[in-house]
Amino acid sequence: MAEQPDFGRFDVLLLDIEGTVCPISFVKDVLFPYALNVLPDFLAEQWDEPSFAGYRNAFPDDYRNDRSAFEAHVRDLVARDVKAPYLKALQGHLWTKGYESGVLKAPLFPDVPPFITNAHAAGKKIMIYSSGSVPAQKLLFAHTTAQPPDMSVVISDWFDTVNAGPKTDVASYTTILSHHPDISPARWIFLSDNLSEVDAARQSGMHSIPAVRPGNAPLPSHHPLSEFAVSEFTPASIAQAAAAIAAKTSA
């Protein structure tokens, strides 16, 4: 029997998506433009449909009753990269057809599928926390470039800015922990390319490590955790970085 990989003390691996498990360019250059491209025809067909009412009514009053104003507001939010929950819900809805038709496939970094699969096989829980809506997260992981392409089956839980909160708020990570009270915060580790998110997670009691992945901007050299950033996801690299951070912060 093959030896199980050592994921150290951690029972839960909480993962960011954009810039952590898949390239930022997939979100910025593929997903966002796709949603904007299909938006006009979608609104023309669905504006008055009951199935669209929930998405439309989540928008501010100034936009929900005027189709042109609605579309302009969506384009403005995307241009400014505003992570409004009602926008994220709409984007996830717009991406559904693209994923299901095969036009959209999430290009996970090559080390991610074996990392997740091995962690799951070792009895670890894999959870996702992203600013994208939970339905959008599930679509992404169900339609990847991995083999097999559906990675969603090994994900234990999903969190976004609606059911957890903003990703740079400590309270959001406390909320996530409260969903699994049987697991000590010290048994969690969060991986993200955003140092503000890493800091917030650590303040909640979780362990957290910054990630530096292809296509990401360099991390600021003055941040005390930048030197421990991982560029490859393996059990050894995660365990070593976590141990090094713990040693430095306890010194």
What does this structure look like?
The structure is a single chain. The chain has 251 residues and is α/β, with parallel strands linked by helices. The model has no long low-confidence stretch (mean pLDDT 95). α5 packs parallel to α7 (134-142) and α8 (170-178) packs across α9 (195-203). It contains 10 helices and 5 strands, in the order βααααααβαβαβαβα. The protein has 2 domains: 12-22 and 106-250, Rossmann fold (3-Layer(aba) Sandwich), CATH 3.40.50; 27-101, Transcription Termination Factor Rho, Rna-binding Domain, Chain A, Domain 1. Helix content is 47%, strand content 9%. β4, α9 and β5 form a beta-alpha-beta unit.
Uncertain runs: none
Order of strands, main sheet, comes to 3-2-1-4-5
Radius of gyration: 19 Å
What is the N-to-C succession of helices and strands? Answer: EHHHHHHEHEHEHEH
Helix content: 40-55%
